[in-house]
Amino acid sequence: MPLTDQHRFGMQLAQMSRGWRAELDRRLAGLGLSQARWLVLLHLARFEEAPTQRELAQSVGVEGPTLARLLDSLESQGLVQRQAVLEDRRAKRIVLCDPARPLIDQIETIATLCARSFLWGSMRRICGCACGCMGISWRTWKRPDLITPLIKMWGRTCSRWRRVSYWIFG
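Now predict its structure.
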């Protein structure tokens, strides 16, 4: 069965994602954190209020038991703390501890430098266009009534819209 443009695009996107994470993981190795741990810290830092363990697991995209082991490790390093939820004795809120803040700043700085080198030149424009199109794809899947205004918006800002949208929408 021959590969279609949609399959190629998906495979290249997945390969680029793996490459990005591998390079970022290599650059973050000096901080003594595995990819799973720094990913949990970054997701946790994005919440305005301390999330429950279940909310954090959903955000990171892992199962509860997997997150529990990661949190045990981060807690033993003094980077996070579990706090009981008054309304639900079974639930725990996950709070960043003070030593985690500078570490998260370092992770974000390294990630920014990695992104600059990884997305150098025209790759940045292509990725911006593709990300915009994927955002449209996700939003229209959730709300089909948005398709026409979004196509008009991206048609004006992305000259490659027609080609990329063909890959995504067929």
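DSSP finds eight helices and two strands in the chain.
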